[in-house]
Design a protein that fits this description.
Layout (H helix, E strand, L loop, with lengths): L3 E17 L2 E15 L2 E7 L9 H9 L2 H5 L4 H7 L4 H18 L3 H4 L8 E2 L2 E3 L4 H10 L5 E5 L5 H11 L4 E5 L9 H10 L4 E3 L18 E4 L9 H4 L5 E4 L1 H4 L2 H13 L3 E4 L6 H10 L5 E2 L17 E2 L2 E2 L9
Parallel strand pairs: 5-6, 6-7, 7-8, 8-9, 9-10, 10-11, 11-12
Antiparallel strand pairs: 1-2, 2-3, 4-14, 13-14
Amino acid sequence: MNRVLSVSEERFPIAGTFTISRGSKTEAEVVVCSITDGGQAGRGECVPYKRYGETVASVCTQIQAMAAMVADGIGRQDLLEAMPPGAARNAVDCALWDLEAKLSGVRVADSLGIRRPTALETAFTLSLGTPEAMAVQARANADRPLLKVKIGGDGDIARIRAVRDAAPDSRLILDANEGWTEANLQANLAAAAELGVALVEQPLPAGADDLLAHIDRPVQVCADESVHTTDGLERLAGLYDAINIKLDKTGGLTAALDLRDRARAMNLSVMVGCMVGTSLAMAPAVLLAQGADFVDLDGPLLLARDREPGLAYRGSLVSPPGPALWG
């Protein structure tokens, strides 16, 4: 076997500015791994995340280091041992899934036992801003059934109220990105419950999870930064009601499927989320998200332009990928 691995960096402008509690950005920096075998090529996209110590350069180096193993025909299960969880492994793993589908003629959905993958209702994300600015965003998207609201600082209750007033019929997910504290946690959760919020994502810094054991949770609380793989999931089960699975955290679809199944067996709700990337990054996640409790795969909707061909979005519905894109 003589498969050839290549890696490339790409940039896609964001429509406006995307702001969370840790900062803002105006473009999505993505890394694409391609693995060719004969006349077929499989692709996988990842988004390096500074929060986890990743850069575009470091991720490209990690992927390129796998060239010899890929050439020798490494499989996805062995990849779990050869690379640590993270963006780099995600790109390689998803490229292998795509290549296997192209070589065998069997779609990834069929390999997963999904006979008819369906379109999913995805959240649409509102950037962190002043209550007034967030109300403008919410009003412009009030027809969307599910909004994800970036918060995480002083004055969050005013932000939540402003969004709820501007989008009274939308279900709301709050994403604090580790921005709440022990001092404001209880009051913020109470306000979220009062305003009909469906889910609060990662309110506290990863590592401060034990604080959740000592309070009432009037709203479902979801772990994001606190959970990457199945390691440590049992410890979080009594503290959180749900987990957010992202391929760039688990290190690919293979590990994400294991995490999803383990979480369901523990009666945890499942959210499938994403970094800000293109349709190529979302494609495997759409299959992972079949049957999920919450879906947040709006990355391409936040971009000024997506890659072609991309996923088909109709309002807040995202359709499964076609073979020309992935899988």
